[in-house]
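target protein:
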Amino acid sequence: MRQELDKFESEIFGFTVGRIDEVRSFELTPGTIDGLKRNYDMTLARVSLTDHSVIRGLTRGDFELMDVGLTFERSTKVKDLNTGELDIEVGVAHPGDVEQLVPMLVDPWGGRYDEDEHLDRDKVAKLRLEWLKNDLAGRTKYCFIAVDTLKPWTKGGFKIMAYVLAKDDGEIDLVGTLPDYRGQGIASDLLLSSLHEMRQRDGVEQATVRTHATNYAACRLYESTGFKLHKSDATFRLAGPRFERRPL
């Protein structure tokens, strides 16, 4: 089992957040659990839902389930690409795009912390904001956007209707549509266009995207655009004594 301090989340929340991976069931002894509680205020473990022995070990060791994630996969080869009347701009996000995107994306998106009553709402929002800034500045190579050419943005360009954040290896970080534009097929067209662009620009053959199992709209979107369920996982949390004493 490997464990490490998550410096990014620890700094924002103001308490120590640890992560463990490569967990084997026989390692989850009472001594190991007590050590994690001493080392971290909160310990997170993400495991495959098929790893039943590890899940049993985590739950017996005071870990609680936080969320279930689903990873979808499909080929980037898109037949009969048709974006209709959409004006879709594809490429690396410009500074103006990022400035417009960040305020749109800071609303809760159903992550594991959004419903957690132990955590300060303002700090959860700050975590989302900083994660997005880091993602747009480095981890994400492409920011694919669909713009409304009838609605200019006050600071230049056009109003963004939908977005896809993706890496050059085919991993899609985030997909979304602004409320005013939902139910019009915009996200579907943009997502398919994004797959096509990743294949053309970087030779990416397969794309993956992960979402929370309770995000039914996202699951429907991925399945309707040809994605198939590839794997599932669960995130568990172990609360240390200092974290447990924090007021709700």
About this structure: The chain has a mean pLDDT of 83. The two ends are 31 Å apart (CA to CA). Residues 66 and 236 are 5 Å apart (CA to CA). Helices lie at 7-13, 30-39, 52-60, 95-105, 121-139, 186-202, 216-224, 241-244.
